[in-house]
Give the backbone structure.
Amino acid sequence: MPSIRKSQLSDGFESLCRWAAEQKGIDLVQEIDFDHFEKLSEQRFWKMERLSLVQLVFQRPLEIWLALDKALYLEERGYRVRLAEFCAKSVTPRNILICAYKI
């Protein structure tokens, strides 16, 4: 599905669904309960929001673990490795630079 214009969201859920179906060449049946599916999607949205809060707790430790794992891999293959932060975490959480030189 192509990107949507933000203004399309103000037309409501049913309008968005019909537009998306049209973009994909899907014929929608007439008896769709759009209110029901909008409520379901809102429930799923809030569930994902709660899950993303849990994800935030582990985001930085996971980034560090991945960088250390890559550094160890390089050291095991004969590289001298140095880790550094190349910008503030507020710019991007993936701010760990791996410098590796073959020894």
Notes: The chain has a mean pLDDT of 93. Residues 83 and 98 are 5 Å apart (CA to CA). The beta strands are 79-85, 96-102. Residues 33-102 form one domain.
